[in-house]
Design brief:
By secondary structure, the chain is mainly beta. The protein contains seven helices and 43 strands. The strands form seven sheets. It has a 22-stranded antiparallel beta barrel. Strands 8-14-15-12-13 form a five-stranded mixed beta sheet. Residues 138-229 form the TonB-dependent receptor plug domain.
Length: 779
C-alpha cells in the first residue's frame, strides 16, 4: 500500500508542477475544404514530428495552440488517401492562418468518414502489447486484435460472441458467472483492462465500452506478471477514450429470446480550447434464454474525461460500472462408467430443457476506476503513471449442478455463493525512451508495478438435493426449495479472507541493430506475498525471474518480417490446496517456456495483415485435474507440452471488402504423469477456425448496403484429462445484412444459421438459431 500511495503522490506532484499554461507561444489555425469548395469536417490535422493534432469541426475549422516557435510540416491524413502537407512557420505570440484543400469531393469525404473506421479492422497498432510504441513488424510477439468496428459489423451484444472473433481462441463460460477463453490449449481469463490487472471471474462486462480486444499469445509473465496472464497469454480489454470533436450514437437492438438492448455513446469537448474532453458510454440489456433456464438483466455506465494540462502532460480519468441480475449456467458432470455416456451428445435430457426453476438467479456489481498521467519528458522520453481500482461484488449467486449417476438418473444440486468480494488495487509506472549508441538505436522500457488483491466471502452448500429419473414426472428445484435446505446455520461456511500482493520490476529493450534487424531483451523480477488465505497462517512469499527474448528481421523493409521468440510465464499458486477428501497438496511454482518462430506481413499499404507462427510451450511439474468418484482432485506429478501453429489474416484489399481468416492447431499433451500420460489436456480442442467476409457496396444502386457472413469451426475436445468424456466438434455460421450512411445505421444478424447444438470446454451449452435487429442514430 505504501507503494500505491507513493505513486499517487507522484501523479499529484506532476500535475501541480506542470499544470501552468505555456503563454506566449504560437497558434496555428485554419480551415479545410473539399475539392468542390465545401467545408471538410472530421479530418485529422497534425504537425509532423510532434504529438500536436486535432480534428476539423463541422465547418472544417481547426486550431492548434501553444506551439513552440519554429518551422513545421502541417499534414492532413485520410484513410486510403495520400497525405497532404503544407509548410508553416510559427512565431511566438502570433497566429498563423492556413487554408487547405483536399483532393476529394464532399461525397467522397462522407464515404471516408463511414469507411475510415473499417480500416481499424486490419490495424494492429498498439502500445499495450510491448508497453512501448513499436509497430507489429518490429515486434517478435504474436498478438491478435478484434476491433470495435468488427463487433459493430457482427452486431455483437455479449462478451462471449466478442471473444469468438480471434484466431486460435474459443470462449468459455464459468459456472461462477464469469467469462474467459481457451488459448493455445490453456484456460485464459480476461485478466487485463487497459494493460492493468482486472478480473471477470464472477461477473462479465458489457461490450459497449470496448474499443478493441487484444489477444496476446503465449506465456506473458515478463511484462504482465502472473496475475493478468496465463500460459496461453493475456486478454486485454482496451476501452474507448474521449476525442476532440462532438459526436454521438444511440442504438436499439431487439431479437430472439426477448432481447432488448439500448446503448448510447456521446463524446464532446468541454471547453473551447478542447483541453478537456469527455465521453460517456452506457447500455441497458434484457434477454431470456433459448433454454427453459436462463435470463440476464444488466446495466453498464462508463464515463471518461481527458484533461490536456499542457502540450506535455495529459491526464485521463475513466470509470466503468456494471450491474447484472442473471442466471448462472448449469455445470454438468457424467459418471462415464455407470452411464455409458462418452459424449455430451449422449445425454438424454433435451438440449433446451432444465430441471431447475428460472428464479435461481444471481446479483453482481463491479466498479472499475482508472487514472493515467502521461508526461512527455523530452522528445525522446515519456512517462506513464497508471492507477486503477477494481471492485467485484457478488451479492448472491445460486449455481446449479447436474451429475449423471446412471443411464437415466440425474443427481441435482444447488449451492449459494455470496456475498463474495474481490478487489484489485493496481499501480504501474513506466518510462519509455529512445536513444542511440553509435550506429545502434535503442527503445527502452523501465517499469514497476504493484497489485494488492483482497477477497473474502461466504457460501452455502449441502449434499445432492435428490436423484431423479428424467423419464418420470419431477418438480423443478425452486429458490424457495433451495433456501429451505441451504439457509440453515450448519450449511453456511466462510470462504475466509485472502490478501495477496504482487510487486514487479521489469526492463525491456528493442535494439535496432540495422534498418532491418531488431532484437528484444526483457526481464522481470516478481515478488509474490500471500499475507492471508490458504492453509498457511504465517503467510507465504516467493520471488521469480521471468525473461523474454526476441529477434526480428525484415526481409522486405516495412512489409515482411521473420521473427522468433523465447517467452516465459510463471504461476505463484497458493502453496497448499485442500483436496475433496480433506488431504492437503503442497504446490510448487509452475513455469512455462515457449519457443516460437514465424512470419508477419503488411502488404498493400497495410491493407493486408498476416501472421503465421509455430510454437512449443513446455511445462515442468504441471498441475492437472483428476476426477475420482465425481470429485475433482489436483495433482502435480507431470510434464506438459503444448505445441501448434496459428494463422491470422486481416484484409481490406479493396474499398468495402473485409476478410478475416484465422486458424489455430494445438496439441496440449500430458507428457509425463503418474496417470493419464499421453492424453490431451481437458478443454483443449486441436483445431479452431475463424472466418468472416463482409462487403459494403459503393457507387451503385446498392450504395451503403452491406452483407457479411462467417463463423467458427471447433474440433472435439475432452471434458476431463482421462479423455473419457468428449465435447463434440461444431461449426456455427452467422450472416448479416446492413445499411449505413453518415446519419444512421440498421442491421439484421442471423446467428447459428444451421441451428447447431454445441458446448464449450466447461460443458456449458450455447444458443440455438437466433436473430437480432439493430438501429443506430448518429449525430
Amino acid at each position: 500500500m505504501r507503494f500505491f500511495i507513493l505513486l499517487l503522490c507522484c501523479i499529484s506532484a506532476t500535475v501541480l508542477s506542470f499544470a501552468n499554461t505555456e503563454d506566449g507561444k504560437g497558434i496555428v489555425t485554419g480551415q479545410v475544404f473539399t475539392v468542390d469548395g465545401d467545408p471538410a469536417p472530421g479530418v485529422r490535422v497534425a504537425l509532423k514530428g510532434t504529438n500536436r493534432g486535432t480534428l476539423t469541426d463541422e465547418k472544417g475549422k481547426f486550431t492548434l495552440r501553444n506551439i513552440n516557435e519554429g518551422s513545421y510540416e502541417l499534414q492532413i491524413s485520410l484513410p486510403g488517401y495520400e497525405t497532404i502537407t503544407r509548410s508553416v512557420t510559427v512565431e511566438n505570440n502570433r497566429t498563423v492562418a492556413v487554408t487547405m484543400e483536399l483532393t476529394i469531393s464532399k461525397k467522397q469525404l462522407d464515404e471516408v468518414v463511414i469507411t475510415g473506421g473499417r480500416h481499424k479492422i486490419v490495424d494492429k497498432q498498439t502500445d499495450y502489447v510491448a508497453r512501448m510504441p513499436i509497430n507489429n513488424l518490429e515486434n517478435p510477439q504474436v498478438y491478435n486484435i478484434v476491433s470495435n468496428e468488427l463487433l459493430k459489423e457482427q452486431v455483437v451484444t455479449n462478451m462471449q460472441d466478442a471473444l469468438k472473433a480471434a484466431p486460435g481462441v474459443v470462449p468459455v463460460s464459468y459456472p461462477s458467472g464469469g467469462v474467459g477463453t481457451m488459448s493455445r490449449g490453456f484456460s485464459t481469463g480476461i485478466g487485463a483492462r487497459n494493460g492493468l490487472r482486472s478480473d471477470l471471474g464472477r461477473s462479465s462486462a458489457d461490450v459497449s465500452n470496448i474499443e478493441r480486444i487484444e489477444f496476446i499469445k503465449g506465456p506473458s509473465g515478463t511484462l504482465f506478471g502472473t496475475g493478468a496472464s496465463s500460459f496461453g497469454g493475456v486478454v486485454n480489454l482496451v476501452t474507448k477514450k474521449p476525442g476532440e470533436t462532438f459526436f454521438g450514437t444511440t442504438g436499439l437492438t431487439v431479437g430472439s429470446f426477448g432481447l432488448s438492448r439500448l446503448t448510447a455513446d456521446i463524446n464532446a469537448p468541454v471547453n473551447k480550447d478542447k483541453t478537456v474532453l469527455a465521453r460517456v458510454n452506457t447500455a441497458i440489456q434484457r434477454q431470456n434464454s433459448f433454454s427453459d433456464f436462463g435470463r440476464v438483466s444488466s446495466f453498464a455506465f462508463a464515463p471518461s474525461v481527458l484533461y490536456k494540462v499542457n502540450e506535455k502532460l495529459t491526464v485521463l480519468f475513466d470509470a466503468e460500472i456494471f450491474n447484472a441480475n442473471s442466471s448462472r449456467p448449469t455445470y454438468t458432470t457424467v459418471n462415464v462408467a455407470k452411464t455409458g455416456y462418452t459424449s455430451f451428445e449422449d445425454i438424454p435430457l433435451p438440449y433446451s430443457a432444465s430441471v431447475y426453476d428460472n428464479d435461481l438467479d444471481s446479483k453482481t456489481q463491479s466498479q472499475k476506476y482508472f487514472v493515467e498521467a502521461k508526461y512527455r519528458i523530452s522528445d525522446q522520453w515519456t512517462s506513464s503513471t497508471n492507477i486503477s481500482y477494481v471492485n467485484e461484488l457478488t451479492e448472491y449467486s445460486y449455481q446449479t449442478y447436474n451429475t449423471w449417476v446412471a443411464k437415466d438418473s440425474l443427481a441435482r444440486y444447488v449451492g449459494i455463493w455470496g456475498p463474495i468480494k474481490n478487489t484489485f488495487t493496481n499501480a504501474q509506472q513506466n518510462f519509455v525512451g529512445k536513444f542511440n549508441t553509435g550506429a545502434l538505436k535503442h527503445t527502452l522500457l523501465l517499469g514497476v508495478s504493484y497489485t494488492d488483491y483482497y477477497a473474502n466471502g461466504m457460501s452455502k452448500s449441502a449434499p445432492n438435493f435428490d436423484t431423479i429419473n428424467i423419464h418420470n414426472t419431477y418438480k423443478l428445484i425452486t429458490k424457495e426449495h433451495a433456501n429451505k435446505i441451504l439457509l440453515q446455520p450448519e450449511r453456511v461456511s466462510s470462504r475466509g479472507t485472502s490478501q495477496n500482493q504482487y510487486i514487479g520490476a521489469y526492463v525491456s529493450e528493442v535494439l535496432n541493430i540495422s534498418d532491418r534487424l531488431y532484437a528484444m531483451l526483457s526481464l522481470r523480477f516478481d515478488r509474490f506475498i500471500q499475507k492471508t488465505g490458504g492453509f498457511n497462517p504465517g503467510g507465504y512469499e516467493q520471488n521469480s525471474l521471468s525473461p523474454k527474448l526476441g529477434l526480428v528481421y525484415q526481409v522486405v523493409k516495412n512489409k515482411v518480417s521473420l521473427f522468433g521468440n523465447y517467452m516465459n510465464g510463471f504461476q505463484n499458486n497458493n502453496p497448499q490446496i485442500e483436496q475433496p477428501d480433506g488431504s492437503v497438496l503442497n504446490v510448487q511454482p509452475v513455469y512455462a517456456n515457449q519457443w516460437e518462430v514465424g512470419i508477419k506481413s503488411e502488404l498493400l499499404n497495410g491493407k493486408v495483415n498476416t501472421t503465421f507462427s509455430y510454437y512449443t510451450i513446455n511445462i515442468d511439474n504441471a498441475l492437472r485435474n483428476e476426477i475420482i468418484d465425481n470429485k475433482q482432485f489436483t495433482r502435480q506429478d507431470g510434464q506438459q507440452q503444448s505445441s501448434g501453429f496459428e494463422l491470422d489474416v486481416l484484409a481490406n484489399p479493396v474499398e468495402g471488402l473485409n476478410v478475416i481468416l484465422g486458424y489455430g492447431y494445438n496439441e496440449n499433451k500430458i507428457v509425463k504423469a503418474a496417470k493419464n500420460q499421453g492424453n490431451i489436456v481437458a478443454g483443449a480442442p486441436r483445431n479452431i477456425a475463424t472466418y468472416w467476409v463482409s462487403y459494403k457496396f459503393h457507387n451503385s444502386v446498392l450504395q451503403n448496403w452491406g452483407i457479411g457472413a462467417g463463423g467458427n469451426s471447433v474440433s472435439k475436445s475432452f471434458f476431463d484429462d482421462g479423455n473419457t468424456l468428449t465435447i463434440p466438434a461444431y461449426t456455427v455460421v452467422n450472416g448479416t445484412l446492413f445499411y449505413e450512411n453518415t446519419k444512421w445505421r440498421a442491421g439484421f444478424k442471423l446467428n447459428n444459421i444451421g441451428d447447431a447444438q454445441y458446448w464449450d470446454s466447461y460443458g456449458i451449452y450455447y444458443p440455438t438459431r437466433n436473430f437480432s435487429i439493430d438501429l443506430a442514430i448518429k449525430f
